[in-house]
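Practice problem: predict the structure.
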Amino acid sequence: MTGPTVTVIAADYFHSYSVVGLLAVVGVLFVAVAFGAGRLLRPVVPTPEKLLTYECGVDPVGEGWAHTQVRYYVYAFLYVIFAVDSIFLFPWATVFAAPGYGATTLVEMFIFLGFLTVGLLYAYKKGVLTWT
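Answer:
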């Protein structure tokens, strides 16, 4: 490659990053202006009622700490795992349709689904999926 060709390629390369950088700066400025306008325009009238912790219209009584069951987090965690993993099936479906990639993609998909099945069986054996 000659010098001018490399310069043109580098200029195009950095031009695309400058567009992304400019968009990031505009986004940050937009958020800063919105927060600044909100701070300038909002009324500031603190009262004791406004400074109380608000919990669904119920006055706060007792301590601020509450015990929660861990099993709810486990259910949420399992849901997130399987929901995110199911998203990987859509790109596989598009690659599966491409010529020459069908068998490999199908084997990879079944290996992936096997891992998910093993994880689900493990959670079932540990008793995580029983609602008590």
